[in-house]
Amino acid sequence: MSLFYAYRAATRLLGPALHLYLNRRKKRGKEDAGRIGERFGHPGAPRPKGHLIWIHGASVGESLSALPVIEEIRKRYLDVSILMTTGTVTSATLMHARLPDGVIHQFVPIDRQVCVARFLHHWKPDLALWLESDFWPNLLTKANKAGTRLALLNGRISEKSFKGYSRYPSFIRPVISAFDIILTQSSDESERFESLGGTSVTAVGNLKFAAPPLPADATDLATLQEQIGNRPVWLASSTFDGEERIAGDTHKKLAPEHPGLLTIIVPRHPDRADDIEASLIAQGLEVSRRSRAHLITAQTDIYLADTMGELGLFYRLAPVCFIGKSLSAKGGQNPLEPARLGCAILHGPDMSNFATISREMLAAGACRPASDADDLTRQVNALLHDPETVKNLAEAALGYANSKAEVLERTLDALRPIMREKGIKEVDHA
User: Fold this and answer.
1) pLDDT tens readout for residues 274-302
2) pTM of this prediction?
3) Nearest by Cα to 368 from 347, 385, 384, 350
4) What are the CA-CA distances from residue 420 to residues 76, 180, 423 (Å)?
5) Number of C-beta neighbours around residue 268 at 10 A
6) Residue positions annotated with a catalytic role
7) How many Cα atoms within 13 Å fall on the side-chain side of residue 87?
8) Most CB contacts within 10 A, which of 9, 127, 312, 343?
9) Residue 429 domain flag
10) In this predicted structure, what is the pLDDT of residue 5?
11) CA separation for the pair 364, 378 (Å, rounded)
Protein backbone atom coordinates (compact mmCIF):
# COMPACT_ATOMS: atom_id res chain seq x y z
CA MET A 1 0.00 0.00 0.00
CA SER A 2 1.38 3.43 -0.96
CA LEU A 3 1.79 6.07 1.71
CA PHE A 4 -1.07 8.06 0.17
CA TYR A 5 -3.57 5.23 0.67
CA ALA A 6 -2.14 4.50 4.10
CA TYR A 7 -2.93 8.12 4.98
CA ARG A 8 -6.50 7.67 3.76
CA ALA A 9 -6.92 4.53 5.85
CA ALA A 10 -5.48 6.28 8.90
CA THR A 11 -7.85 9.25 8.63
CA ARG A 12 -10.77 6.81 8.37
CA LEU A 13 -9.70 4.70 11.36
CA LEU A 14 -8.77 7.72 13.49
CA GLY A 15 -12.17 9.36 13.09
CA PRO A 16 -13.16 9.17 16.78
CA ALA A 17 -9.75 10.50 17.84
CA LEU A 18 -10.07 13.45 15.43
CA HIS A 19 -13.50 14.28 16.85
CA LEU A 20 -12.09 14.19 20.37
CA TYR A 21 -9.16 16.38 19.28
CA LEU A 22 -11.44 19.03 17.77
CA ASN A 23 -13.69 19.04 20.83
CA ARG A 24 -10.65 19.61 23.05
CA ARG A 25 -9.57 22.48 20.79
CA LYS A 26 -13.10 23.89 21.09
CA LYS A 27 -12.82 23.91 24.90
CA ARG A 28 -9.51 25.81 24.64
CA GLY A 29 -11.02 28.41 22.30
CA LYS A 30 -9.07 27.12 19.30
CA GLU A 31 -12.29 26.24 17.47
CA ASP A 32 -15.51 28.25 17.11
CA ALA A 33 -17.95 26.38 19.34
CA GLY A 34 -20.96 27.67 17.42
CA ARG A 35 -19.55 26.53 14.06
CA ILE A 36 -17.80 23.28 14.95
CA GLY A 37 -20.12 21.43 12.59
CA GLU A 38 -18.42 23.08 9.63
CA ARG A 39 -15.19 21.31 10.55
CA PHE A 40 -17.06 18.02 10.03
CA GLY A 41 -18.35 19.15 6.64
CA HIS A 42 -21.82 20.22 7.75
CA PRO A 43 -22.71 23.42 5.87
CA GLY A 44 -23.34 26.60 7.81
CA ALA A 45 -25.10 28.33 4.90
CA PRO A 46 -27.11 27.38 1.81
CA ARG A 47 -25.33 27.05 -1.51
CA PRO A 48 -26.09 29.97 -3.83
CA LYS A 49 -27.49 29.16 -7.25
CA GLY A 50 -25.20 29.27 -10.27
CA HIS A 51 -21.42 29.15 -10.48
CA LEU A 52 -19.43 28.92 -7.26
CA ILE A 53 -15.73 29.64 -6.83
CA TRP A 54 -14.17 28.25 -3.67
CA ILE A 55 -11.09 30.02 -2.29
CA HIS A 56 -9.06 28.51 0.54
CA GLY A 57 -6.44 30.16 2.73
CA ALA A 58 -5.17 28.26 5.74
CA SER A 59 -4.69 31.17 8.13
CA VAL A 60 -4.34 34.94 8.36
CA GLY A 61 -1.53 35.48 5.85
CA GLU A 62 -3.05 33.34 3.11
CA SER A 63 -6.55 34.71 3.61
CA LEU A 64 -5.27 38.29 3.33
CA SER A 65 -3.62 37.35 0.02
CA ALA A 66 -7.02 36.16 -1.17
CA LEU A 67 -8.73 39.53 -0.68
CA PRO A 68 -7.43 41.27 -3.84
CA VAL A 69 -8.16 38.08 -5.83
CA ILE A 70 -11.76 38.13 -4.59
CA GLU A 71 -12.12 41.81 -5.47
CA GLU A 72 -10.76 41.28 -8.99
CA ILE A 73 -12.94 38.21 -9.63
CA ARG A 74 -16.02 40.20 -8.68
CA LYS A 75 -15.00 42.95 -11.12
CA ARG A 76 -14.26 40.59 -14.01
CA TYR A 77 -17.01 37.95 -13.78
CA LEU A 78 -20.80 37.95 -13.77
CA ASP A 79 -23.15 35.65 -11.90
CA VAL A 80 -20.52 33.99 -9.75
CA SER A 81 -20.64 33.39 -6.00
CA ILE A 82 -17.56 33.03 -3.80
CA LEU A 83 -17.01 30.70 -0.88
CA MET A 84 -13.99 31.40 1.35
CA THR A 85 -12.66 28.75 3.72
CA THR A 86 -10.02 29.14 6.41
CA GLY A 87 -8.79 26.87 9.17
CA THR A 88 -8.31 29.07 12.25
CA VAL A 89 -10.49 31.15 14.53
CA THR A 90 -8.23 34.19 14.10
CA SER A 91 -8.50 34.08 10.31
CA ALA A 92 -12.27 33.63 10.53
CA THR A 93 -12.51 36.73 12.74
CA LEU A 94 -10.42 38.69 10.28
CA MET A 95 -12.47 37.49 7.30
CA HIS A 96 -15.68 38.50 9.06
CA ALA A 97 -14.33 42.05 9.15
CA ARG A 98 -12.68 42.14 5.73
CA LEU A 99 -14.68 40.00 3.29
CA PRO A 100 -16.97 41.89 0.87
CA ASP A 101 -20.73 41.56 1.33
CA GLY A 102 -22.06 38.41 -0.28
CA VAL A 103 -18.90 36.32 0.09
CA ILE A 104 -19.60 33.25 2.23
CA HIS A 105 -17.12 32.15 4.88
CA GLN A 106 -16.88 28.59 6.18
CA PHE A 107 -14.32 26.66 8.19
CA VAL A 108 -12.49 24.12 6.06
CA PRO A 109 -13.52 20.52 6.89
CA ILE A 110 -11.05 18.20 8.56
CA ASP A 111 -9.34 15.86 6.11
CA ARG A 112 -11.52 12.79 6.65
CA GLN A 113 -13.18 11.38 3.53
CA VAL A 114 -16.67 11.45 5.05
CA CYS A 115 -16.31 15.11 6.08
CA VAL A 116 -14.80 16.07 2.73
CA ALA A 117 -17.58 14.25 0.82
CA ARG A 118 -20.24 16.03 2.88
CA PHE A 119 -18.64 19.41 2.17
CA LEU A 120 -18.23 18.81 -1.58
CA HIS A 121 -21.73 17.33 -1.98
CA HIS A 122 -23.28 20.51 -0.56
CA TRP A 123 -21.11 23.20 -2.13
CA LYS A 124 -20.30 21.60 -5.52
CA PRO A 125 -17.67 24.25 -6.41
CA ASP A 126 -16.86 24.79 -10.09
CA LEU A 127 -13.36 26.00 -9.30
CA ALA A 128 -11.14 25.93 -6.22
CA LEU A 129 -8.37 28.48 -5.76
CA TRP A 130 -5.85 27.29 -3.18
CA LEU A 131 -3.50 29.78 -1.52
CA GLU A 132 0.16 28.88 -1.00
CA SER A 133 0.69 25.46 0.58
CA ASP A 134 -2.07 23.98 2.75
CA PHE A 135 -2.07 20.54 1.11
CA TRP A 136 -4.81 18.27 2.47
CA PRO A 137 -4.66 14.99 0.50
CA ASN A 138 -8.28 13.84 0.83
CA LEU A 139 -9.77 17.29 0.27
CA LEU A 140 -7.75 18.06 -2.85
CA THR A 141 -7.92 14.67 -4.55
CA LYS A 142 -11.63 14.22 -3.81
CA ALA A 143 -12.41 17.70 -5.14
CA ASN A 144 -10.49 16.88 -8.31
CA LYS A 145 -12.35 13.58 -8.73
CA ALA A 146 -15.69 15.35 -8.20
CA GLY A 147 -15.00 17.61 -11.19
CA THR A 148 -13.86 20.75 -9.41
CA ARG A 149 -11.03 22.41 -11.29
CA LEU A 150 -8.13 23.24 -8.97
CA ALA A 151 -5.65 26.10 -9.21
CA LEU A 152 -2.85 26.76 -6.74
CA LEU A 153 -2.22 30.49 -6.32
CA ASN A 154 0.88 32.04 -4.79
CA GLY A 155 2.34 28.53 -4.62
CA ARG A 156 5.12 28.16 -2.09
CA ILE A 157 7.20 25.25 -0.80
CA SER A 158 10.13 25.97 1.47
CA GLU A 159 13.42 24.18 0.89
CA LYS A 160 12.87 22.22 4.11
CA SER A 161 9.34 21.12 3.11
CA PHE A 162 10.52 20.23 -0.37
CA LYS A 163 13.20 17.92 1.01
CA GLY A 164 10.63 16.28 3.26
CA TYR A 165 8.08 15.79 0.47
CA SER A 166 10.77 14.45 -1.87
CA ARG A 167 11.39 11.53 0.46
CA TYR A 168 7.77 10.38 0.04
CA PRO A 169 6.85 10.79 -3.65
CA SER A 170 4.02 8.25 -3.48
CA PHE A 171 2.31 10.48 -0.91
CA ILE A 172 2.80 13.95 -2.37
CA ARG A 173 2.56 13.27 -6.12
CA PRO A 174 -1.21 12.50 -6.16
CA VAL A 175 -1.82 15.66 -4.13
CA ILE A 176 0.24 18.05 -6.25
CA SER A 177 -0.98 16.51 -9.53
CA ALA A 178 -4.58 17.22 -8.46
CA PHE A 179 -4.00 20.87 -9.38
CA ASP A 180 -4.86 21.75 -12.98
CA ILE A 181 -2.59 24.79 -12.87
CA ILE A 182 0.01 25.98 -10.37
CA LEU A 183 0.98 29.66 -10.16
CA THR A 184 4.07 30.16 -8.04
CA GLN A 185 5.87 33.02 -6.36
CA SER A 186 9.21 32.39 -8.09
CA SER A 187 11.07 30.19 -10.56
CA ASP A 188 12.64 28.29 -7.64
CA GLU A 189 9.18 27.39 -6.39
CA SER A 190 8.16 26.32 -9.90
CA GLU A 191 11.06 23.89 -10.12
CA ARG A 192 10.11 22.34 -6.78
CA PHE A 193 6.47 21.87 -7.77
CA GLU A 194 7.41 20.34 -11.11
CA SER A 195 9.76 17.95 -9.35
CA LEU A 196 6.90 16.86 -7.08
CA GLY A 197 4.52 16.13 -9.96
CA GLY A 198 2.98 19.51 -10.74
CA THR A 199 1.85 20.32 -14.28
CA SER A 200 1.10 23.66 -15.95
CA VAL A 201 3.41 25.39 -13.48
CA THR A 202 4.12 29.11 -14.02
CA ALA A 203 5.95 31.69 -11.91
CA VAL A 204 3.78 34.85 -11.82
CA GLY A 205 5.07 36.52 -8.63
CA ASN A 206 3.93 36.96 -5.06
CA LEU A 207 0.30 37.96 -4.49
CA LYS A 208 1.28 39.75 -1.31
CA PHE A 209 2.40 42.60 -3.59
CA ALA A 210 -1.23 43.02 -4.69
CA ALA A 211 -2.65 43.47 -1.21
CA PRO A 212 -4.01 46.92 -0.30
CA PRO A 213 -2.68 48.74 2.78
CA LEU A 214 -3.98 47.33 6.03
CA PRO A 215 -7.04 49.30 7.16
CA ALA A 216 -7.41 51.41 10.28
CA ASP A 217 -10.38 53.01 11.97
CA ALA A 218 -9.99 56.78 11.54
CA THR A 219 -11.55 57.60 14.92
CA ASP A 220 -9.31 55.15 16.77
CA LEU A 221 -6.28 56.49 14.94
CA ALA A 222 -7.06 60.10 15.89
CA THR A 223 -7.75 59.12 19.52
CA LEU A 224 -4.45 57.27 19.90
CA GLN A 225 -2.49 60.03 18.14
CA GLU A 226 -3.94 62.50 20.63
CA GLN A 227 -2.99 60.29 23.58
CA ILE A 228 0.57 59.80 22.27
CA GLY A 229 1.14 63.45 21.37
CA ASN A 230 4.78 64.18 20.55
CA ARG A 231 6.27 61.20 22.34
CA PRO A 232 8.89 59.15 20.44
CA VAL A 233 7.33 55.82 19.40
CA TRP A 234 8.51 52.50 18.05
CA LEU A 235 6.61 49.28 17.40
CA ALA A 236 7.34 45.57 17.82
CA SER A 237 4.78 43.87 15.57
CA SER A 238 3.58 40.27 15.31
CA THR A 239 5.88 39.20 18.11
CA PHE A 240 6.45 35.65 19.31
CA ASP A 241 7.41 34.35 22.72
CA GLY A 242 10.64 35.95 23.87
CA GLU A 243 10.43 38.96 21.58
CA GLU A 244 8.17 40.90 23.97
CA ARG A 245 10.84 40.64 26.67
CA ILE A 246 13.43 41.82 24.16
CA ALA A 247 11.20 44.80 23.31
CA GLY A 248 10.84 45.53 27.03
CA ASP A 249 14.60 45.43 27.53
CA THR A 250 15.07 47.74 24.55
CA HIS A 251 12.58 50.19 26.06
CA LYS A 252 14.35 50.19 29.44
CA LYS A 253 17.74 50.83 27.84
CA LEU A 254 16.51 53.62 25.55
CA ALA A 255 14.02 55.45 27.76
CA PRO A 256 16.66 57.57 29.55
CA GLU A 257 18.02 58.75 26.21
CA HIS A 258 14.56 59.35 24.65
CA PRO A 259 12.33 61.03 27.27
CA GLY A 260 8.70 59.96 27.01
CA LEU A 261 9.52 56.90 24.86
CA LEU A 262 6.50 54.72 24.09
CA THR A 263 6.89 51.13 22.93
CA ILE A 264 3.92 49.47 21.22
CA ILE A 265 3.86 45.67 21.20
CA VAL A 266 1.43 43.74 18.99
CA PRO A 267 1.71 40.01 19.78
CA ARG A 268 1.00 37.61 16.95
CA HIS A 269 -1.22 35.59 19.31
CA PRO A 270 -3.24 37.91 21.59
CA ASP A 271 -4.29 34.97 23.78
CA ARG A 272 -0.78 35.20 25.29
CA ALA A 273 -1.46 38.74 26.54
CA ASP A 274 -1.82 37.90 30.24
CA ASP A 275 1.59 36.20 30.30
CA ILE A 276 3.16 38.99 28.24
CA GLU A 277 1.79 41.66 30.58
CA ALA A 278 3.05 39.80 33.66
CA SER A 279 6.52 39.46 32.12
CA LEU A 280 6.69 43.16 31.22
CA ILE A 281 5.51 44.23 34.68
CA ALA A 282 8.20 41.99 36.17
CA GLN A 283 10.70 44.02 34.12
CA GLY A 284 9.49 47.12 35.97
CA LEU A 285 7.45 48.52 33.08
CA GLU A 286 4.07 50.25 33.15
CA VAL A 287 1.71 48.46 30.74
CA SER A 288 -1.57 49.63 29.17
CA ARG A 289 -3.68 47.04 27.32
CA ARG A 290 -5.84 47.83 24.34
CA SER A 291 -8.21 44.91 24.89
CA ARG A 292 -9.10 46.45 28.26
CA ALA A 293 -9.62 49.95 26.82
CA HIS A 294 -6.68 51.34 28.82
CA LEU A 295 -5.60 54.85 27.88
CA ILE A 296 -2.04 55.70 26.93
CA THR A 297 -1.03 57.96 29.77
CA ALA A 298 2.20 59.79 30.54
CA GLN A 299 3.13 56.85 32.77
CA THR A 300 2.61 54.20 30.07
CA ASP A 301 5.86 52.55 28.97
CA ILE A 302 4.35 49.74 26.91
CA TYR A 303 1.08 49.81 24.99
CA LEU A 304 0.14 46.13 24.60
CA ALA A 305 -2.09 45.94 21.54
CA ASP A 306 -3.64 42.57 22.31
CA THR A 307 -6.39 42.65 19.69
CA MET A 308 -6.83 41.11 16.25
CA GLY A 309 -6.96 42.86 12.90
CA GLU A 310 -5.58 46.25 13.98
CA LEU A 311 -2.00 46.15 12.74
CA GLY A 312 -2.82 48.83 10.19
CA LEU A 313 -3.61 51.17 13.06
CA PHE A 314 -0.26 50.68 14.78
CA TYR A 315 1.87 50.81 11.64
CA ARG A 316 0.35 54.26 11.07
CA LEU A 317 1.28 55.35 14.60
CA ALA A 318 4.90 54.22 14.70
CA PRO A 319 7.57 55.53 12.30
CA VAL A 320 9.95 52.70 13.32
CA CYS A 321 8.91 49.05 13.50
CA PHE A 322 10.48 45.69 14.25
CA ILE A 323 8.97 42.65 12.53
CA GLY A 324 8.49 39.72 14.89
CA LYS A 325 9.06 36.00 14.50
CA SER A 326 12.52 36.88 13.25
CA LEU A 327 14.61 37.13 16.42
CA SER A 328 13.55 34.62 19.08
CA ALA A 329 11.46 32.64 16.58
CA LYS A 330 12.11 31.77 12.94
CA GLY A 331 10.61 32.73 9.61
CA GLY A 332 9.53 36.35 10.02
CA GLN A 333 6.27 38.06 9.14
CA ASN A 334 5.15 39.99 6.06
CA PRO A 335 7.37 43.10 5.65
CA LEU A 336 5.19 44.50 2.87
CA GLU A 337 2.48 45.45 5.37
CA PRO A 338 4.58 48.05 7.24
CA ALA A 339 6.28 49.04 3.97
CA ARG A 340 2.93 50.24 2.56
CA LEU A 341 2.28 52.40 5.62
CA GLY A 342 5.41 54.51 5.91
CA CYS A 343 7.47 52.53 8.42
CA ALA A 344 11.23 52.24 8.69
CA ILE A 345 11.59 48.47 9.00
CA LEU A 346 13.89 46.41 11.21
CA HIS A 347 13.84 42.64 11.48
CA GLY A 348 15.83 39.84 13.05
CA PRO A 349 18.27 37.46 11.31
CA ASP A 350 15.65 34.88 10.20
CA MET A 351 13.18 36.05 7.54
CA SER A 352 13.09 32.69 5.76
CA ASN A 353 9.30 32.79 5.26
CA PHE A 354 9.86 35.92 3.15
CA ALA A 355 13.37 35.18 1.96
CA THR A 356 13.13 36.68 -1.53
CA ILE A 357 11.20 39.76 -0.40
CA SER A 358 13.50 40.53 2.52
CA ARG A 359 16.60 39.98 0.36
CA GLU A 360 15.30 42.34 -2.32
CA MET A 361 14.25 44.92 0.27
CA LEU A 362 17.68 44.84 1.83
CA ALA A 363 19.29 45.38 -1.59
CA ALA A 364 16.91 48.31 -2.19
CA GLY A 365 17.78 49.96 1.12
CA ALA A 366 14.20 49.33 2.28
CA CYS A 367 14.89 47.50 5.56
CA ARG A 368 17.66 46.74 8.02
CA PRO A 369 18.43 43.42 9.75
CA ALA A 370 19.35 43.21 13.42
CA SER A 371 21.68 40.35 14.33
CA ASP A 372 20.50 39.98 17.94
CA ALA A 373 18.70 41.77 20.78
CA ASP A 374 21.59 44.16 21.48
CA ASP A 375 21.82 45.08 17.81
CA LEU A 376 18.07 45.72 17.71
CA THR A 377 18.42 48.14 20.62
CA ARG A 378 21.31 49.90 18.91
CA GLN A 379 19.40 50.28 15.65
CA VAL A 380 16.15 51.47 17.24
CA ASN A 381 18.20 54.04 19.13
CA ALA A 382 19.94 55.22 15.95
CA LEU A 383 16.65 55.62 14.07
CA LEU A 384 14.93 57.46 16.88
CA HIS A 385 17.83 59.95 16.73
CA ASP A 386 17.74 60.24 12.92
CA PRO A 387 14.34 61.12 11.37
CA GLU A 388 15.95 61.71 7.96
CA THR A 389 17.15 58.10 7.78
CA VAL A 390 13.72 56.95 8.96
CA LYS A 391 12.14 58.92 6.11
CA ASN A 392 14.54 57.47 3.53
CA LEU A 393 14.02 53.89 4.70
CA ALA A 394 10.25 54.34 4.66
CA GLU A 395 10.25 55.81 1.15
CA ALA A 396 12.42 52.97 -0.15
CA ALA A 397 10.13 50.41 1.46
CA LEU A 398 7.01 51.99 -0.05
CA GLY A 399 8.63 52.11 -3.47
CA TYR A 400 9.52 48.43 -3.25
CA ALA A 401 6.04 47.43 -2.04
CA ASN A 402 4.45 49.18 -5.03
CA SER A 403 6.88 47.80 -7.59
CA LYS A 404 5.20 44.47 -8.46
CA ALA A 405 1.46 45.03 -8.25
CA GLU A 406 0.98 43.56 -11.75
CA VAL A 407 1.10 40.07 -10.21
CA LEU A 408 -2.67 40.24 -9.65
CA GLU A 409 -3.38 40.82 -13.33
CA ARG A 410 -1.04 37.98 -14.32
CA THR A 411 -2.77 35.67 -11.85
CA LEU A 412 -6.29 36.43 -13.12
CA ASP A 413 -5.18 36.20 -16.75
CA ALA A 414 -3.78 32.72 -16.07
CA LEU A 415 -7.14 31.64 -14.65
CA ARG A 416 -9.12 32.82 -17.67
CA PRO A 417 -9.05 29.49 -19.62
CA ILE A 418 -10.49 27.56 -16.67
CA MET A 419 -13.17 30.20 -16.13
CA ARG A 420 -14.19 29.91 -19.78
CA GLU A 421 -14.20 26.12 -19.61
CA LYS A 422 -16.60 26.26 -16.66
CA GLY A 423 -18.86 28.73 -18.43
CA ILE A 424 -18.15 31.59 -16.03
CA LYS A 425 -18.82 34.72 -18.08
CA GLU A 426 -16.40 37.61 -18.08
CA VAL A 427 -17.65 41.18 -17.99
CA ASP A 428 -17.37 42.88 -21.38
CA HIS A 429 -15.57 46.20 -20.75
CA ALA A 430 -15.67 47.23 -24.41
Assistant:
1) 999 999 999 999 999 999 999 999 999 99
2) 0.86
3) 347
4) 12, 14, 5
5) 18
6) 62
7) 16
8) 343
9) no
10) 87
11) 22
